[in-house]
């Protein structure tokens, strides 16, 4: 009977979606006995079931996993599959940066690599792949990280005993900040970007990255058995055969990590233990997978000699190889979108962009712009609405027509604007440019068309604050008191009963392109939707740094009247305040995800606070509060 219990638990552990008939076939017992055993296992809290439609799925509880583990070797000499859940998306990374390397006077991750640092390069790769929650475990010279403002958004943990402990102590120190699966990286590793992409996509939730032996003399050799990790050692004499060399990058599930830390804290008597060997201990009971990538260009910086090898030999090779892969990656988007042959794409050039990656591409002699959305934009942008609104703008003649738009990925291809010249704030101040700009706004705002989505600034503030909390980002100083004043204005503004119109909602000069002498295009409709038309005018006026006189001229050109009404003036200054407050939060979110905007966010908040002192705002607030 006990053997059948183990057989049944093992079958459920491998596939939760098997029905009782299939379980009976696998275990070689009757359906009636399966039903009886499932009843006993459920009553004993070894398994639980979930009904989805007509199907029932069975899952092991922790008690069931522990019971299976205790007897599995005796019956099958196999290991437990600790996971029944599918592969989860990795959103967090832990970088071990506590160790002191000989000949180096700073942590290895802070060594210079091609006008940046090794750590910043690795952070950029992680963020390119959607990992923004990053924990750095320091030890040696932790204060040096504070000298790099680009690391301010990271979570730092210090292993104060780094001199007398191995890497497992550093990994355990990160536990208060770990709640899900994560990527583990050693800070001295330089590696191809594709290695990160491939291990993140690998179907096993626990796996180590291995490659062919480097011959460095400090290899951690790996032996694989039955498709899983079997042995790790730097002593090659311990191996019957060597399957590869372990690189300092692994993907760990929360469950396996928790068991590693628990085992280390409760039973370990060797403070010098490294995490690889703790993982090996865990692998005696649980399946730990592997990803093997051959011909991988990589290196580690353990000494000044290693650093010279990395910078003079390894990195130049890696850079050339990555450039080829990047070109292939960009061309693959174009080939898939437009059904092209590889050789149809004749040239690719970077084309700027504050949030997205834009490229000027030449296809069969014709020029296009390819946009690939930047990291984190999927939570801020509704691509389906953007596609609809961009097509509407194209039909109105105020943007070029779309060639291709993928609603899922946000990849967009449009014809390149001829004689394209992006506006600058200085250009936007010219009267001839103002006339073209206001003409485009009038076409859009007075079209009578209904755009997809509504851009409600107050709903956006709530949404962005939620995203700010999810990113564990801290708002700037004076944020809360500024918000209190903004919320008072919200009540006044919503009482104005303003008619909404189709709006661009991000009409800074950089999103307006001049073509020839007398044509302007509004581009990038990511934030477009129904809104108060004064939003577009206020944002453009602020970002163009109009003087009061220039703003007055701009408004008279737009309204085609000599004077601007008091209510329009009020709506302009209120929209300026709302915009600066909203984009302040946007900047905080983007910086938490690794972007660096310098003083942009704090400047917005300062301007917002200054406008709250405007005479019109004081008068409106006074009247409202009487």
TrEMBL record:
Residues making up the signal peptide according to the UniProt record: none
UniProt keyword list: Kinase, Nucleotidyltransferase, Transferase
Domain of life: Bacteria
GO MF annotation, one: kinase activity
Alphabetized Pfam families for the sequence: Choline_kinase (PF01633), HTH_24 (PF13412), NTP_transf_3 (PF12804)
Metal-binding listed as a keyword: no
Domain MobA-like NTP transferase: residue ranges: 93-214
Kinase found in the keyword field: yes
Ranges that cross the membrane: none
Protein name: Phosphocholine cytidylyltransferase/choline kinase family protein
Provenance organism: Neobacillus novalis
């Amino acid at each position: 009977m006990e053997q059948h219990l183990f057989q049944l638990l093992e079958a459920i552990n491998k596939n939760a979606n098997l029905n009782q008939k299939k379980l009976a076939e696998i275990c070689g017992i009757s359906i009636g006995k399966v039903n009886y055993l499932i009843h006993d296992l459920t009553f004993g809290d070894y398994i639980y079931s979930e009904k989805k439609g007509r199907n029932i799925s069975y899952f092991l509880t922790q008690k069931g996993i522990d019971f299976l583990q205790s007897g599995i070797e005796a019956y099958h000499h196999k290991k437990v599959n600790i996971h029944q859940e599918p592969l989860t998306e990795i959103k967090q990374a832990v970088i071990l940066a506590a160790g002191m390397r000989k000949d180096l006077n700073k942590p290895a991750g802070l060594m210079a690599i091609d006008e940046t640092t090794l750590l910043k390069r690795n952070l950029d790769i992680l963020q390119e792949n959607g990992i923004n929650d990053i924990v750095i475990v320091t030890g040696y010279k932790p204060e040096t990280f504070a000298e790099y403002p680009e690391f301010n958004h990271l979570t730092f943990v210090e292993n104060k005993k780094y001199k007398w402990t191995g890497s497992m102590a550093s990994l355990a120190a990160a536990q208060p900040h770990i709640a899900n699966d994560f990527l583990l990286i050693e800070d001295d590793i330089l590696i191809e970007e594709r290695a990160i992409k491939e291990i993140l996509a690998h179907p096993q939730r626990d796996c180590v990255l291995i490659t062919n032996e480097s011959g460095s003399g400090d290899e951690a050799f790996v032996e694989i058995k039955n498709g899983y990790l079997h042995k790790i050692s730097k002593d090659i004499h311990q191996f019957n055969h060597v399957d590869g060399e372990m690189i300092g990058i692994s993907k760990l599930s929360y469950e396996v990590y928790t068991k590693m830390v628990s085992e280390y804290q409760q039973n370990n008597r060797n403070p010098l233990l490294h995490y690889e060997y703790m993982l090996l201990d865990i692998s005696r009971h649980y399946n730990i997978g592997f990803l093997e990538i051959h011909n991988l260009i990589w290196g580690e910086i353990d000494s000044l000699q290693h650093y010279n090898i990395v910078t003079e030999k390894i990195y130049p090779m890696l850079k050339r190889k990555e450039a080829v892969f990047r070109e292939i990656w960009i061309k693959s988007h174009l080939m898939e979108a437009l059904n092209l042959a590889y050789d149809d794409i004749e040239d690719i050039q970077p084309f700027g962009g504050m949030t997205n990656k834009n490229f000027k591409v030449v296809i069969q002699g014709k020029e296009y712009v390819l946009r690939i959305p930047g990291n984190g934009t999927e939570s801020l942008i509704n691509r389906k609405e953007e596609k609809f609104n961009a097509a509407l703008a194209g039909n109105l003649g105020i943007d070029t027509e779309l060639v291709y738009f993928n609603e899922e990925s946000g990849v967009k291809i449009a014809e390149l604007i001829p004689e394209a010249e992006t506006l600058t704030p200085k250009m936007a101040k010219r009267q001839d440019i103002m006339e073209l700009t206001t003409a485009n706004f009038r076409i859009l705002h007075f079209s009578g068309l209904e755009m997809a989505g509504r851009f409600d600034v107050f709903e956006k503030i709530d949404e962005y604050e939620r995203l700010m909390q999810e990113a564990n980002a801290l708002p700037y100083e004076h944020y809360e008191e500024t918000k209190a004043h903004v919320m008072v204005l919200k009540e006044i503004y919503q009482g104005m009963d303003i008619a909404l119109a189709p709006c661009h909602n991000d009409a800074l000069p950089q999103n307006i392109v001049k073509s020839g002498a007398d044509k302007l295009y509004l581009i990038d409709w990511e934030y477009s939707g129904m809104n108060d038309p004064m939003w577009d005018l206020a944002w453009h006026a602020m970002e163009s740094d109009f003087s009061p006189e220039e703003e007055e001229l701009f408004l008279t050109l737009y309204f085609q009247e000599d004077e601007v009404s008091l209510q329009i003036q009020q709506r302009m200054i209120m929209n300026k305040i709302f915009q600066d407050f909203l984009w302040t939060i946007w900047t905080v979110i983007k910086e938490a995800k690794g972007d660096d905007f310098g003083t942009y966010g704090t400047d917005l908040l300062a301007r917002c606070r200054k406008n709250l002192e405007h005479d019109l705002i004081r008068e409106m607030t006074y009247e409202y509060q009487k």
